[in-house]
Amino acid sequence: MIHPIAVAGGSHPSPDPRDRGGPAQPMLIVQGLKKSFPIRAGLLNRTVAEVRAVDDVSFVVVKGETLGIVGESGCGKSTLARLLMHLIPKDAGQLVLDGDPVGEARGVMLDELRRSLQMVFQDSASSLNPRLPIEQSIAYGPRVQGASGSSAKAQARSLMEKVGLNPSLFGQRYPHELSGGQKQRVNIARALALDPRLLILDEAVSALDKSVEAQVLNLLGVLKRQLNLTYIFISHDLHVVRYISDRVLVMYLGQVVEIGPVDAIYDDPKHPYTQALLACRLSMDPEARVEAAPLAGDPPSPVSPPPGCRFHTRCPFVEEICKTAAPVLGDVLALAPERHLAACHMVQPGSGHSRAPDRVGVH
Amino acid sequence: MTDAIVPSRSPAATHLPAAPQRVRGYWGSVWRRLRYDYVTLFCLVLILIIVASAVFAPELAPLDPYKSSMAHRLKPIGYRNYLLGTDEQGRDMLSRLLFGGRVSLSMGILPVVLATAIGGLFGVLAGYYGGKVNTVIMRTMDVFFAFPSVLLAVAISGSLGGGIVNQLLTLTIVLIPPLCRVAETATAQVRTMDFVDAARATGASTLSILFTHVIINVMSPVVVYASTLVSVSIILASGLSFLGLGVSPPTADWGLMLSTLRQSIYVQPWVSAIPGIAILVTSIAFNLVSDGLRQAMDVRS
Amino acid sequence: MNDMSPPAVAAVPRPEPFVRVEDLRVTFVSRDATVRAVNGISFDLERGKVLCVIGESGSGKSVMMRSLLRLHPKGRTVIEGGMRVGEHDIASIGDRTMTKLRGSLVSMVFQEPMTALDPLYTVGEQIAETVRRHEKVSREAAWARALELLELVRVPSPERRLKAYPHELSGGLRQRIVIAMALSCRPSLLLADEPTTALDASVQIQILVLLRRIQREMGMAMIFVTHDLGVAAQIADEVAVMYAGRIIEYGDARDVLVAPKHPYTRAMLASTAKDQGRDHPLEAIAGSPPDLRALPDGCSFAPRCAHAGPDCTRAVPAPVTDLRRHMARCVRTRLKAGLLTFDPGVAGDPAVREGIDLAARSSPAHCASA
């Protein structure tokens, strides 16, 4: 069972009229989310293996915060985003949006979820319909939700202004006539068109030039304050995640390996994977070069993840216990969200790892 | 301005980001590229002339295309008032060519239009839904695909019988599978694009997504492919008529004319070749136009 | 115009450069527009050194590099200026010779390893084939060389990987294979076009460490194109910052990355999210990069520059080079005690200052033209 979580400390956003569960009710509770993709082969199209893209992921998103999600390619962060958006069906798990379970008889219906939860896609050739003027791309959502043509258009124009695009100059342009940064502004405007409360930003600035990336990050900050938004910010760029996030969730091969407040994660990472990821950040100083790569090899394939701790094949502290027993993260749903948790035998007291603390008294 | 709400210093805020001065739509940009493609333009004009001459055949034809004259059989090009000579029954070749164009062009264009609508619809459905829907539709198409198109056309029209309507039906059935395949491939590609997911995330119905986001993007590859099929259809129709499976004499039709004049090839080789030349020129023109269209419709170029 | 030569006072004898590019201009001509992608760049590169070219998309960095291999489509590209690698004049040699030089003298590593590999052949077949194309060796010798190359790029269990197809390998391994292929004929100059951009951070750093080690061991010169200042700091000896087809700052990696003098480089550094406080906005650079079909007059960065004045738009700023060979093209940079300094208060030279009124009147026009 899930209980409302009391958030100790931290500033709550001002009460929002759209609020149903109260300010302390998390915006989103994700419980035991699972998704695997079958790999079919052979004449009969039989399932020969499966990719466990998201494997028992649980976390909460507090109202008004930015939760950063980091991890390498193949860790399941994009699948997670699509699961949250209900773009692909989940195998197991539950979502609770502002106190109401999603897709159940007494809970919120999908249609309402659509309005509360929107996604900004990575700027790429495919994020905008190439044959639609951008004003129509933005107005599409309101139209679908039943707005009249003229009011959807007016809304699109005001949103374009909000994201810093002059509607009379850009409204009738096609995506190929815009620069990467401008396209990303359109993507953001489109996501905002249904007046959502939670935005999932999937690698939303990763494809942009650095000088444009800063503009878009600033825009996201301004919009968040103006519109009282909550963000889930998915990225592989650790610098950007540190700048924008309040809390950070680290994923490895479909599982959460560490979660906690951003400074705790960056200043005192507990999981060896997080430590290695952070060591991979590049310094801007040519005299502070990394001489040996912190992590050897590529991430193992999610098709057949190693037994025990999934990171043990690359971990410098690996011991026997790591190869057999999977470490647990702890009950993220029951504990306060600002707790710093890591799924590693080295932080679990009495786990059998030689570096594990003796008594209860972890961070 | 792109920097409207960026709170940092924003000098020279009048600077406009890189973008063309004049905003033009997709078709505007297609036309702009086409305008300099002289080969395509020439072929377009040629097609217009051929179509116009078929449409206005009753006005343009100097003589009655069905009036035969035993005295003036197989006369050479330029004989008296027979500009292109006469056929084996002494009918005016020019008039027959003009009237024959009506049938041949209709047989080129109509089946393609019908097949594009039907095949395109099935292809879009198969591509968008995937899974079982795709299997059912595409495997059915594969059955037709397994036969060479000429053989299939002969088989179908053989069982349906001759006549213009049956020929139209035959050609449409033959052209549906390839168009369906192209539409399916293009749709499956569009289906994976993020903007389709973004539309699904707004809670849009499948129908709305198909019409607003999918068909509009699938259209150009399908239209380009369909335009290459016009010449195929003309040739197939002529072939069927040639074999006696299409329109029946005395209707003027390029394929049928070629067939009946075949016996006179040693008597009047040039006159006999005229319907063949008409088929050749028309189909090459359609092919070149579709080539040019494909290039012009490529947004990246 | 030889921008990079040191001033007379600092005439330290320098070895003859291995690569010399002089006033290179690359223009793409099409029916619709003339795109001036590279607008006069010059640099020297010694053997055994790494030059990092930093720039955003559209800065002309990749175009410049592809010109060194003459990879541009012939009919639509106009290349002017001098390019010399070793004793070969790249700009004037025949196509036959150029084909021979590709791979043996100059070699290239691309951003997307999957497109550089043929999916139908095994890795070993592809490397051996590349070796045999340039050297007359037996099949067995070529295969042995392929194995050697995989060991050089530290591919684990190389014998097994030689028999693998590209799709069976991870992104990091594929990029190692592509690097091995590029090295197969012992090139003297390696060109790398964002070879780590498509990779995960943990793999990116492996590849950077590898490239750096191989480059040092083989004594190659390397030109490395990237948009990431952090990557440049990892691998560069010298850094060239490009904007709108010109090198706007050049110098020793540390000089440029730690104490940049051009407002663009300074703004780029200031705008990165690295170690910035969460509470205040980033110092973003306003606007977007210029349209290469219609470049603004004068300094191309002026429309976005915080320190721009009317004097910036009069002419393309001349390069100023200091004792340490640190160069910047900006009217606000000065030589002070032989070193480059950036002084936002300085106006352009007096001759230019006379034209301020005139330039001020004409400046809206230049803004609109962009």
TrEMBL record, chain B:
What are the record keywords, sorted?
Cell membrane, Membrane, Transmembrane, Transmembrane helix, Transport
Which membrane topology term applies here? Multi-pass membrane protein
Which Pfam families does the record cross-reference, listed alphabetically? BPD_transp_1, OppC_N
The superkingdom of the source organism is Bacteria
Where does this one sit in the cell?
Answer: Cell membrane
Determine if Membrane is one of this entry's keywords. yes
**Regions that span the bilayer:** 38-57, 108-131, 143-165, 198-216, 223-247, 267-289
- One Gene Ontology term from the biological process aspect of the record: transmembrane transport
Q: Which PANTHER family match?
A: OLIGOPEPTIDE TRANSPORT SYSTEM PERMEASE PROTEIN APPC (PTHR43386), PEPTIDE ABC TRANSPORTER PERMEASE PROTEIN (PTHR43386:SF25)
Protein name (Swiss-Prot/TrEMBL): ABC transporter permease
